[in-house]
Amino acid sequence: MNENVVNEVIQKPRKSRAKKIIIIIAVVLIVLFIALLIFIPYSIMPMFLGQRYEQQQFNSLDYGIPSERITLVTDDSLHLAAWRTRAEDSRGTIIILSGIQNPSVTAFFGYAKMFADHGWDSLLIEMRARGESEGKEIGLGMTEWRDVKAGVDFLRADKEVRDLPVVALGTSMGGSTVINAAKELPEVNGVISISAFSSWADAFVSNMEMSGMPKAIGIMDIPFINTYLGFHFGFDALKYSPEKSITKLGERPILMMHSTGDTQIPYEHFEKLLNKAKKHHIDVTTFIRQGNEHFVCYEQYSEAPSQDTEFSQAILDFLAVKFP
Predict the structure, then answer these.
(1) Alpha helices in 185-266 (DSSP H)
(2) Which of 44, 53, 55, 178 is deepest in the core (most CB within 10 A)?
(3) What's the CA gap between 81 and 187, in Å, rounded?
(4) Cβ–Cβ contacts within 10 Å for residue 118, how many?
(5) Residue 196 and residue 174: Cα distance in Å, rounded?
(6) Is 249 exposed, middle or buried, given 0-12, 13-18 or 19+ CB atoms closer than 10 A?
(7) What span, in angstroms and rounded, lies between the C-alpha atoms of 129 and 126?
(8) Where is the chain membrane-spanning (predicted)?
């Protein structure tokens, strides 16, 4: 037999084995990578879910305004702590929510005082699984819209204010929640969203990126994050995502506020929501603050936001123009 033919016969099995080995290695690496993507949400998400948050409570009188402690009942039978403040000759009610963990909504009595001075009642709602409110776990804004509904139902049962405007204001996860609530509740006449995330999956990816994970891996993990949330809350809950909900506001106005250097909810979330709003011709007003101010209001004025004149005037102008 020709020597070249012999060598070719020997090399073919070797090439075939090498190709099989490469394919096996590639398959194993792909499987391991997918396993990593699945593992990430299943290892980290329990840090946010399945627990309550206890919070320091504040007294409204320390902020210069009396309040009435009330209890709201949600459609899913949770009792929520809430506080109502009143203005003379009310123009309407501002529903106020805090964020994912801290502070308690009672830290926003300074906002209620500012609103009362300008003719607005406030209804401060401690969302589920926080402080004095019932609930076993937070819902990442996907269940808390029901807490806003409980507040709206309470106001609509009050003959004195039932025909007056209702504006929902929230910060951080509360900012995302009020957008989701407006999607479901036509009784919410306007929204003030401060430092909202565009979706929980986006917020998860942002936090992983800030922890050192390559953003590309985080983006590829989004389907697995949503799958986890779907199994946990029910896949119907996935529709309560601010980037989807904001497109359903119709003619109702929204004031979106964010800081450019926010290290908790990066500015790109604001840009994503703003682009969605503009694309769907939503009546959107914006206030952008330079620096890392997650609450947008400067920290030294958190107890008296009216002293942060740029911040407070943006809110008060929005209310005066949209609800004259």
Answers:
(1) 200-210, 215-233, 242-245
(2) 178
(3) 21
(4) 14
(5) 7
(6) buried
(7) 9
(8) 21-42
Q: For 289-319, give the DSSP string.
A: ESSS-TTSS-GGGTT-GGGSHHHHHHHHHHH
Residue count of the chain: 324
> What are the tokens at 314?
């943006």
| Closest-CA residue to 164 (of 72, 114, 231, 94) | 94
Distance CA 319, CA 322 (A): 5
CA 319 – CA 120 distance, rounded (Å): 10
Alpha-carbon distance of 202 to 226, in angstroms, equals: 10
Phi/psi at 307 (5° precision): -75, -20
The pTM of this model reads 0.86
pLDDT in tens, the chain (324 residues): 445 544 454 455 666 766 776 776 666 666 665 665 566 666 676 776 767 788 889 999 999 999 999 999 999 999 999 999 999 999 999 999 999 888 999 999 999 999 999 999 999 999 999 999 999 898 989 999 999 999 999 999 999 999 999 999 999 999 999 999 999 999 999 999 999 999 988 888 887 777 777 777 767 778 878 888 888 888 888 889 999 999 999 999 999 999 999 999 999 999 999 999 999 999 999 999 999 999 999 999 999 999 999 999 999 999 999 999
- Taking the C-alpha atoms of residue 205 and residue 190, their distance in angstroms, rounded to an integer, is 29
Residue type, 308: D
Q: Classify each residue of 96-115 as buried b or exposed e, where b means 16 or more C-beta atoms within 10 Å of its C-beta.
A: bbbbbeebbbbbbbbbbbbb
310, amino acid identity: E
Distance CA 114, CA 181 (A): 24
